[in-house]
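Fig. S4 source data, part A: sequence.
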Amino acid sequence: MEANHPWMVFDPTMEQDLPSPYADKNDPNVLYLIFVRENGLAVRVDLKTKVISPAHFTSDDGDPATTTRYKIAAVTRLEYVKSDEPVFEEFRGATEKRKISHMFGFPVATKPGTREATLRTGYWYVVDHRNAHKVELLRVKIKDSELTGNGGLGETYISPDKKWIVFTLANHPARTFIFNREGTDPETFQ
């Protein structure tokens, strides 16, 4: 995996797992990454100074572990980017269908068999469409992978003022990339 000049990269611990991004309503340059499994623990990220500090929130029902819906006056959830938004995933490479061995059965897979798989070899890109230009943010090399788009790599969020992009990988722990959409990054990878 390669990143094209991220503003910041945040690596949570195994215990923190998946950060859920929220923005400060009063300061668009402050971001909160709330860890739902950790009872409302969070980190406060000042995007101007790149300073990270601890924070803590309580959910609307008093139990942070059961919900990601925080009703806090000063914080708003970042908008999840859909496929028709300015940020999208794009595959460039070869696709082939192949029969592969597979174990079937529920709840325990005990029956061997085969199935048809769509395997891809090439690169997945996360691309930002800004000012009539495509800027490649992330590039992931894959070989014989069933990884698909539409969230296969992870989840993309955009700040309310459309200045920041937060991309969280779909792995454990979920590395988080923060990109400044007003930056002068090169448009393509070398």
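Fig. S4 source data, part B ends here. Residues 63-73 have pLDDT under 50 and may be disordered.
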